[in-house]
Design brief:
Helix content: over 70%
Largest sheet: none
Radius of gyration: 34 Å
Number of strands: 0
Structural class: mainly alpha
Length: about 80
């Protein structure tokens, strides 16, 4: 029985050592034309991001202004009723 286990262990070790070893690396090196395109896209993306932040800030300021107006109205109604 021990010989069988030894033989199986030896066979598994042999098969494992004979299997190919792969190392997959994904590296993309853009060409010159691709670099220009990437830089152009990055510039557009940054402009878009800035515009988005500007619109978000504007929207937030409007929301705060509306909230203050509503608060004043509700405060006035509360004071009148009590």
């Amino acid at each position: 029985m021990r010989k069988l286990y030894f033989f199986l262990l030896l066979a598994i070790a042999f098969l494992y050592s004979c299997s190919p070893k792969y190392k997959i690396e994904k590296v993309y090196i853009p060409q010159k034309a691709d670099k220009e395109c990437i830089e152009k896209c990055e510039k557009k993306r940054e402009e878009c991001r800035k515009e988005c932040l500007k619109e978000k800030k504007k929207c937030l300021n409007e929301a705060i202004k509306r909230a203050k107006e509503i608060f004043k109205q509700q405060e006035k109604i509360y004071k009148e009723s009590y």
